[in-house]
Amino acid sequence: MPLIAEKDGSEIRMSAKMSPELELFVVCGWGKCPQRLERVMKKQPNMNWKNEEGMTPLFNAAMCGSADFCKKLIEAGAEPNIVATEYLLTPYEWVSAKLSYEEERDRRLNDFDQVNRLDDTCLAIRPNLKPFREVKQVLEEAGGVSANAFSNSPTIKPDGSIKGGAPSPARAYNISADGSFSTAHYLRSGKFDMLKYEDGRLLECEYNTKTGHWDGFDAAKAKAEA
């Protein structure tokens, strides 16, 4: 699989003037600056603005464990069930996976027997999961669900409908090999270059700017679908 890299580097430059939407996204990733959040929200940004991975400010706030920010964003009109990233996750789905992983890891590594077997040079570190449990509760109360996009019966269907409800362009996604947040998706945006290793060197390679397909795409697609 070839590599992709942004043509102009990171889209977030703290020294540059940001749009209200990008500023809101950045601030929500901090999760601990309510006064700055209030100032940004007074600019009336689009609450459902998406970055290249489809992530919204609400997704960013959920990932940093800020239940207060999540609640304020939802009250301001943020959609809790937008599907994002190459894994096609909702904020609720991401937080649920985070909690499941950390809880299992904590049970496995921090039980009484394991801790007492540590020598004097080791520390047992327990994760603080309270913020993420609070985020999960906020999202549940707002109707947040897991998309289950790759299952045979997804909760959020590709047209954005939830459990037989109305379709939604904001929640819609494409599960195909060159669909939402795939390599082809990024290449079609015109913001990325494609790179490959050849003879120990990293070289730029060609691709179709309209489809995002490259030489060998069909073989990669067949392998992914196998």
TrEMBL record:
<feature type="repeat" description="ANK">
    <location>
        <begin position="53"/>
        <end position="85"/>
    </location>
</feature>
<keyword id="KW-0040">ANK repeat</keyword>
<dbReference type="InterPro" id="IPR002110">
    <property type="entry name" value="Ankyrin_rpt"/>
</dbReference>
<dbReference type="Pfam" id="PF00023">
    <property type="entry name" value="Ank"/>
</dbReference>
<dbReference type="InterPro" id="IPR036770">
    <property type="entry name" value="Ankyrin_rpt-contain_sf"/>
</dbReference>
<protein>
    <submittedName>
        <fullName>Uncharacterized protein</fullName>
    </submittedName>
</protein>
